[in-house]
Amino acid sequence: MLKCETQVRLTRREVERFTELTGFVPVDVKTREDLDAYVAECKKYYWGVSNETKFLHYLIDTELQAALR
Does position 37 have pLDDT exceeding 90, yes or no? Predict the structure, then answer.
């Protein structure tokens, strides 16, 4: 992720990885808050308590942390 003060820009690879994990393209992600909102919406869409859902949420969180480094 490219950072410039309050703005962020996901790299092509990060967009591909988020899209592959969630099925949703992270469009209009221009700030950290936008990215957090995107992740929250994806998790809300894939809600539940099954092991599969928990694992997907873990993968999304892992990708988010990797992007923030």
Answer: yes
* Lookup: tokens for 33: 């808050």
pLDDT tens digits along 43-65: 999 999 999 999 999 999 999 99
Q: With contact defined as beta carbons under 8 Å apart, do 53 and 43 qualify?
A: no
Position 29 scores a pLDDT of 95
CA angle 53, 57, 62 (to 5 degrees): 145
Contact assessment for residue 19 and residue 26, using Cβ atoms and an 8 Å cutoff = yes
SS3 assignment, position 5: coil
Q: Which long-range contacts (CB under 8 A, 24 or more apart) does 17-25 make?
A: 17/63, 18/60, 18/63, 21/56, 21/59, 21/60, 21/63, 22/46, 22/60
